[in-house]
Design goal:
Blueprint: E1 2-6, H1 24-41, E2 46-49, H2 61-71, E3 77-81, H3 99-106, E4 110-113, E5 121-124, E6 130-135, E7 160-165, E8 169-170, E9 180-181, E10 191-194, E11 202-205, E12 212-215, H4 226-230, E13 234-241, E14 246-253, H5 260-263, H6 267-287, H7 298-309, H8 313-330
Helix pairs in contact: 6-8
Amino acid sequence: MVKFLFVGDWHLRGNNPRNRTDDYPETAKLKLREVFKIAVDNAVDAILQPGDIFDRPEVGIAVLLDFAKVLKESPVDIYCTIGNHDIYGYNVDSYRRTSLQLLEYLVPQLHVIKSASDNPIYMAKGRYKVYLTATPYSKEMDINGYGYGPDVDYHDPEAIGVHIAHGMLLDHKPPFDRYSDLYRVDTKATVILTGHDHMGYGIYRRTADGKLFVNPGSLLRMSASVGEMARPVQVALITIDEIKGTYDAEMVPLMTAKPGEDVLDRSRIEAEKERQYAMENFSALIQGHTGNKVLMDINQIIDQVAAEEKYSPEVVQTALQIIDSQREAVGV
C-alpha cells in the first residue's frame, strides 16, 4: 500500500495579506506542523504539493530561514513542482535565482520537480508500479489542455501514474478563457493532483476512464471573498494498492483552521462595494436629472445633484469620469 498526503498551494510569506486579521506566518507554521502530524498518523510515504510554496519568487532571508526550519521537521519527503508565484514572469528558467531553489538546497526533504519531461520518480513496486511526475507553471500551461500528464512515457502498461500540476483545472466554466476542463482534459496519468485554483474542486473520479482528480484547495486563505470565508481548509489522503491496482482519495480537515470570519476581514471589500454603488447611483442621478431646465452645463447639474443627495467630492469626481467615458463611447 502506498499513501500520499496532498496539500494545496502554501503561499508562504513573512507578513499578512491585506484581509488577514491573524498572524499569517505563524498560522502557516501551525498548519504545516499539523500536516506533518497527519502524515505521521496515516503513515504516508510522501507529502505532495502543487507549487506556489512562496507567495513571490524572492522572500527575505529571515522569512526563508524561518520556514526552512519548519520544513526540516517534515517526517517524510516532500515532492512539489513550481507555481507561478515561485518564479519570475512565468519563466521556469528563472527558477535558479528564486527563493524556492535556495529552500530546496536548505531542506533535505524537499524535492522540486522542474519539468514534465523529467524521468518519472519510482515510488512503489508491485504488480502495478507507481510513478510520480509533475508539470510546473509556464506559458504553455492550460493551452489546449496542456499540463495534466507527463511529457514522457511510463514504459509500463500497468503503471499507475500520479501527476502533480500547477494549472487551472476546473469543474466549471469560469469568467476567463485560460483554464482546462476537468471532464475533457486528456492525460496518461491515473491520479491527477492540481493546485493554482485556491477554492479547489475536491475529489472527482471520471466515469469514462476511472481517472482520479484531486484539488483540496489552498492550505491558507489569501482573500476574504465569500467563497474563501466558507471554504473548509483540508488536505487529501491518497491511497494506492500497488498489488490490486486500486486508488482512492479522501479529504482530511485541518483542526487548526479557524472559521473564515475569525481570520478574514471583509470590511474593506464591503466599503469598496458601497463606494462603487454610490458612484454608479450618483452617475445615474446626473444622467436622469431634469429638475431644473435652466441648468445646461454638466458641471452645474453635478453640483446641484451632489448638494441635494449629499455626495462626497470623491464620488462627484468619479461620476464625472464615468459620464465622460460613456459620452465618449457613444460619440457625444
